[in-house]
């Protein structure tokens, strides 16, 4: 029987995206809706959403939100996207800025957001069975729902799932946040439950107070239990290990569909990928000013350029990588050192390598379609969306064996012919370069093997079908529901 689930997050497609979290929020709710649940989403109303979608939003109303010393109005809007209702929390001062996160007052902004979402439930009189919160921006929700609405059984009945998309971003703030912005007493610091060093942690609060904790791949769910991958939260994760589930992400295969994608030079299917990808490669080469040659091995990279993504393994070895008979297209923004290295690469390898510094959704689609290999040598990767899209577009991922990359990419086995990509284990630039050479060699020297790998990649199920049913099972478990 269908149930009601509210997803709360800092970003979500189709309205706003800085990374894979938005992909998940834009696709998992829809997959659960298709399974018969009433699924809704709450995100802040950012300036970028107002600029692009204001006409499509319906104003619900305004209420005064009291959260500690914060006493300010929140205005709510909504929009229905294919049956999933999105709610938006408007606060000009907090959310109408150029970026989404990374401001001095992030703690105050997201304390307000979380309290405003909880107040909204009462205001619109819609009581979800489950709230699934995501990442640090929403980590306080389970605790606030219990502690700030003490006498209302409707709040107490809500069950909480907290999903970790990236443990490294924790939302750690000063202890004074408790009374000033959260409306909570110092006991939550004193008893240690949300204490982190001398302050408090939103991420830790989510881990401690949710009924169940999930993360976005089985391997990452194990890695974060160790000191190496635990970002200093491994002790508390170990304490919750019985309630920690690792559920691998999917992608929206309706949005990411090479046969329908309107942004491609040519659409293609599992049958027509050879000619389809060639045409897309040629178009991409023309668009970016690369030498036009549909037979060359084209490597793509679409990523935030940060240490997490292993970009310095690449920048350290640009000459060696480009010493191969390849072309290299990089799309992304991030740390200055990485951006500068790729800018240098473009000037040193004119016609062979291109760096597009920026965020460009359309170009991303064309790189996924036009490339042969998709490079993702992350030092750690909770799940990764890029490699899933790449496989679905018949582009073989070349990844480091970590987190979700390990769970989703099966490396080529030259003896059995199995695999849907390439991988290496050590976080080491030489191993990566070796694997790139190996893959490029298969591309040129063993066409039948390459074709079989692409076929396997295209046949890999990267949809939400399986994982949405695991989320459902989890929800059933915490609510003691049976299937009927
Ligand atoms: P993360 O969320 O850690 O950045 P993921 O692999 O989970 O990594 O998701 C990244 C998402 O953002 C993918 O959908 C990828 O295509 C997209 N993306 C990353 N950088 C860019 C960019 N510069 N332009 C367009 N899309 C990008
Ligand atoms: C985070 C992780 C990424 C994951 C995404 C969606 O941004 O870094 O690995 O795919 O969240 O869950």
Could you characterize the architecture of this molecule?
A 9-stranded mixed beta sheet has the order 3-4-5-2-1-6-7-11-12, with helices on both faces. The chain has a 6-stranded parallel beta sheet with strand order 15-14-13-16-17-18, with helices on both faces. It has a 3-stranded antiparallel beta sheet with strand order 8-10-9. The model has no long low-confidence stretch (mean pLDDT 97). It has helices spanning 20-25, 28-34, 47-53, 92-95, 106-124, 141-147, 153-156, 177-182, 187-190, 202-209, 218-223, 234-239, 273-288, 311-315, 318-322, 336-348, 361-370, 386-392, 403-408, 429-445, 447-459, 465-479, and strands spanning 4-8, 38-44, 58-67, 70-81, 84-90, 130-134, 159-164, 172-173, 195-196, 199-201, 212-215, 244-246, 297-302, 326-331, 353-356, 373-376, 396-400, 422-424. The radius of gyration is 23 Å and the shape is globular. It has 484 residues and is of the alpha/beta class. It folds into 2 domains: 4-250 and 465-479, 3-Layer(aba) Sandwich (Rossmann fold); 273-458, Glycogen Phosphorylase B (Rossmann fold), CATH 3.40.50. Helix 13 (273-288) crosses helix 17. Helix content is 39%, strand content 19%. The protein binds adenosine-5'-diphosphate and alpha-D-glucopyranose. Residues 19-21, 23, 302-304, 331-333, 359-361, 364, 383-386 line the site of adenosine-5'-diphosphate.
